[in-house]
Design brief:
single chain; 533 residues; alpha+beta; 5-stranded antiparallel sheet; 15 helices; 40% helix; 19% strand; elongated
């Protein structure tokens, strides 16, 4: 058996492997050294190239929607278009329902400015002058002519709240007003007081021509005298109660500086009120060349009482006057006290006799005979009557005629008519949707009554005229919407007032502003909206 010595071989093999490993390490170090020795810019360029390639590969993964859509099959394209169409349609439907729903929630309309209010009021005055501007007017319904036993040659009876004529007899005959002219003097005083030009407590210096001793013997007097201390308020009482011609002259001088200037003012006021047949030459009514008619006196009295109700409350309803008192006397007469005061009853013979009578004024000269402007108020209803050319010889018979005619007309009026006030139960305006218009102030418009006059209600079914007035019903007819622009003053609805089946009055509801018509698209959209209102 042979034995081999492997020790040397094992050592040789081990040494060979170690050398091989050493050579490999040297080769790796050589490669690292080679890379580190390469140009740096070339390595950087290579890195950018690799990054660009990666980005390109990434972008190639994001596809263009248009290219995707174009690459679809015809069926796929139709499906996508259908989905988009449905989505757009849903959005439009939601927007439409939201827009149309806004018309169902009534919004407050932007109020008119002060200037617009004035312009609108002037427009209505022009369009509905008979109802809004005219002081007197006919009843809005037909009634049988009253058969009243009035003795005076000329007469008229009106509802003081609205100027409706209830009865008339030769009301346009031109007749001197006599002392009823003093109402115009008082009207001017109250107007100037309201304007702040004067005060009723002003002390008035009495011109010599206004002293009682310088007046005509048959003139009505307050008994003014030299040096007396008298206020404007006391002079008005002298006009209203005693019908003092002296007081009229004193007031005229105080207001205008002269009688002539004051008379010019009286005629100017008549012209402003539209009293074309009324003319004055002096303020007391003593002159027969002062002229008017029963109709125009009634119109004036309506304005006078409605504008200055204090004239009735404080002056015309006063039962008497006592003048001059000690306080009115000059220093050299103070020791007389009230002993020189003259007591005079109110010249109105129905004051304190007729229920509700509280004024207004009597008048007499031979050319006009016995005149009476009368007013009375019961249960909130006021009537005014004018009688001129009253019958009778002497004041006793003249006053008897005044009482007869005044009672005849007033008692008939209170038993036959009462007033209904629309403003008490109805709103001032009605809000309506405005479609198809260029509306910059919201989606709505206001409709307002063209006029707001009290309605004179006839006594035709209830126990009393007042009961009938309380039975009046109002029916408001307004459209659901107004389409295609709005015109201010144009009627778009109405309020109808009825007593039972009888229509008393129909009042138009008019737009308080104008809106231009919208364009075709706006009108088309709002036409669709109208179907939902």
């Amino acid at each position: 058996m042979e034995f081999y010595d492997i020790t040397d071989e094992f050592i040789d093999e081990k040494t060979h492997r170690a050398k091989k490993d050493s050579d490999n390490k040297s080769e790796k170090k050589s490669k690292i050294k080679f890379i580190s020795d390469c140009d740096f810019e070339e390595a950087k360029t290579e890195k950018k190239s690799r990054h660009s390639s990666a980005t390109s590969r990434e972008n190639s993964g994001t596809k263009n929607p248009i290219k995707i859509f174009l690459s679809m099959s015809p069926f796929g394209k139709r499906f996508v278009l259908s989905c988009v169409g449905v989505l757009v349609l849903l959005l439009l439907v939601c927007a439409f329902f939201g827009y149309s729903a806004s018309f169902k929630k009534i919004e407050n309309v932007k109020p008119l400015s002060s200037e617009q209010e004035i312009e609108f009021s002037a427009l209505l005055d022009e369009l509905y002058s008979e109802k809004r501007v005219s002081i007197l007017k006919e009843l809005p319904y037909s009634v049988s002519k009253a058969n009243l036993d009035v003795w005076a040659g000329s007469a008229i009876l009106i509802d003081a709240s609205n100027g409706c004529v209830l009865f008339e007899k030769n009301a346009d005959e031109i007749i001197p007003p006599a002392s009823i002219a003093k109402l115009f003097v008082m009207y001017i005083v109250f107007k100037d007081v309201a304007d702040g030009k004067i005060s009723l407590d002003d002390v008035v210096t009495l011109p010599e021509r206004s002293w009682a001793i310088n007046m005509p013997r048959d003139a009505s007097l307050m008994f003014l005298g030299q040096g007396q201390i008298v206020t404007l308020r006391e002079l008005l009482k002298g006009l209203a109660v005693a019908s003092g011609n002296d007081a009229a002259l004193a007031v005229a001088d105080y207001i205008s500086g002269s009688t002539k200037a004051f008379v010019e003012r009286m005629n100017e006021e008549c012209a402003a009120l539209g009293l074309t047949h009324t003319h004055f030459v002096e303020p007391s009514g003593y002159d027969e060349h002062n002229l008017t008619t029963a109709r125009e006196l009634a119109a004036f009295c309506k304005e006078y009482v409605s504008r200055f109700p204090q004239s009735v409350e404080e002056f015309h309803s006063a039962p008497s006057i006592k003048y001059p008192l000690e306080k009115n006397l000059p220093l050299w007469q103070k020791d007389r006290g009230d002993s020189t005061a003259i007591y005079q009853k109110n010249t109105n013979p129905l004051l304190g006799v007729m229920e509700g009578c509280d004024g207004i004024k009597t008048g007499f000269i031979y050319e006009s005979r016995y005149n009476l402007a009368l007013t009375a108020k019961r249960n909130g209803v006021r009537f005014i009557s004018i009688t001129m050319k009253g019958t009778g010889v002497g004041s006793k018979q003249g006053n008897a005629g005044r009482v007869h005619d005044g009672t005849e007309m007033m008692e008939w009026a209170f038993s036959s008519f009462a007033d209904f006030n629309p403003c008490a139960d109805l709103p001032d305006s009605y809000t309506v949707a405005s479609l198809g218009s260029k509306n910059t102030n919201g989606k709505f418009i206001k409709l307002v009554p063209a006029w707001k006059n009290t309605i004179t209600v006839p006594h035709i079914q209830g126990e009393t005229a007042l009961a009938d007035a309380q039975s009046v019903k109002a029916t408001v007819n307004i459209p659901r919407f107004i389409y295609g622009g709005v015109k201010a003053g144009e009627s778009y609805g109405q309020i109808q007032y009825k007593l039972g089946d009888i229509v008393l009055e129909t009042v138009p509801l008019v737009a308080d502003r104008s809106y231009e018509k919208a364009g075709i698209l706006g009108r088309m959209v709002d036409a669709l909206v109208s179907w939902r209102l």
